[in-house]
Amino acid sequence: MDLVFLVFERQKYRSIVANQFEFDVARFSENFHNLLTLVDVINALTDKTKQSTFSDKFILQSSVLLGINNQFNQDDTEQSNTSFNTIADWQLIHFMNNHPLIDISLVQFINDLPAESVSNPIYYKAYSSLSDIPAISIRIRAKVLYPFNLLLENLVSMIDCSLLPRQSVLIDKILAGRIYMLYPMKFRLFNETSANTEIMSSVDVPTINFDPVQANSTSPHGQYTMFHQAYKQLHSLVHELSRSKYDRLWLAQYLGMYSIDQDGPYRDSISCICDDICSTRLPLFILCPNRRTKSGRNRYSSL
To answer: The whole model's pTM is what?
Structure first.
């Protein structure tokens, strides 16, 4: 597919002299044409020079998807594109992902966005970059991102995401558009993958023996924590447990305590493990500066 893509790219820019190497593009499948459209969209979204444009085919597909009241043209996308950089795109994706309509109707979400030709710093007050961009440009950008996500979702089965960087020119181009993926699409793909890879486990639900006294002891590398105790007893089974159809991954037994695990000890063990992961006892996460000082934005974030 890489070879076909590269030759097609050269052919598109009239770089091929030998006619015998030209492809009759019309004979390729609809999915391949959509894949080329997807690459064109990603090029336009990520091109810092703003020279790449959105294809007419994508704009037509988007107009059909969004309906007559949300149609846009090439001039709209070019004007909107010049207003956005990487930070503004990140902020728009964050805004869309956290909007209550994102899981209900993206078309309704777009319809509710301001459409003034000037910026709307009140509506986008939590987003410094968006507050300086004309509201209509943000609305056009959202109109582009919605059909882009649907296009990518429909084509993801053709993409080999296991390839390492620089192993595939085509896949590298497509993966460059990951930052524009919305949460609903990610969740649908994750749930679909989980369902397709689910197996009947060949082992019974294992019992983990937790030592709560030891877990409260100080250790230089966190080896006494509940997290580490669970890891030691489960890591050899993770390839099956992570794909098991069982809702519970283990039964929890607290040493020195008589308890029948009817969800209570199990839930408690998960809470303790989560506390360990987010604590300074394990070198997994570092508190961001604002979280350490409890000031400004992102005060609940870690690195």
So the answer is: 0.70
